[in-house]
Amino acid sequence: MRKIYHALCKAEVFVCGTGFLFLVAFVFISAILRFFRVSMSWNIDLAMFLLAWTAFLGADIAWRSGQLIGVDLVTRRFPLKVQKIIEITIYLIIMGALALIAVFGIRLAVTEKLRTYQSIPIPYSLVTLSLVVAGSSMIVSTALKIRRCIMNFNMKETAGGEK
């Protein structure tokens, strides 16, 4: 199971990185072509599609690796066990919010299955599915953070559960 998870994490990083490179390339090419008065509206539509996917997948990558901002000005003065309980509680709140994002992302994708981009025949629901995929992936990452926090309940860790 661990190998599958690590393979999915590597695939997520690859897809996010590749999508970001294409996003930058499409926007750059579109800007150059606009300078020469050549309009290619499909570049912008595809760039918006890639922006959604890379932003949400990138959020999971940052969350999983502990690269998001954490504020512990108040909690760092608490005893270690209280810090861990607060950390687990916050993770559970985050997991609930991510579950709502995933559920409502599915509902939004279903309602937008007929809507397409103006210049390319891609259904707009593929964009909203980025919410579902990233939200689900972040739920798994959060569950692993909770597990790590519980397993190391009496050990000293840095903020975010990373050693």
Structural description of this entry:
The protein is mostly helical. The protein has one domain. It contains four helices and no strands. The protein has helices at residues 2-35, 41-64, 80-111, 125-151. The protein is elongated. It starts with a helix and ends in a 12-residue tail after the last helix. The model has no long low-confidence stretch (mean pLDDT 88).
Q: What's the overall geometry?
A: elongated
Residues in β-strands, percent? under 5%
Question: What kind of sheet is the major sheet?
Answer: none
Number of helices: 4
What is the secondary structure topology, with strand pairs?
Blueprint: H1 2-35, H2 41-64, H3 80-111, H4 125-151
Helix pairs in contact: 1-2, 2-4, 3-4
What are the salient characteristics of this protein?
elongated; 163 residues; mainly alpha; 0% strand
Briefly summarize what is shown.
The chain has 163 residues and is mostly helical. 72% of the residues lie in helices and 0% in strands.
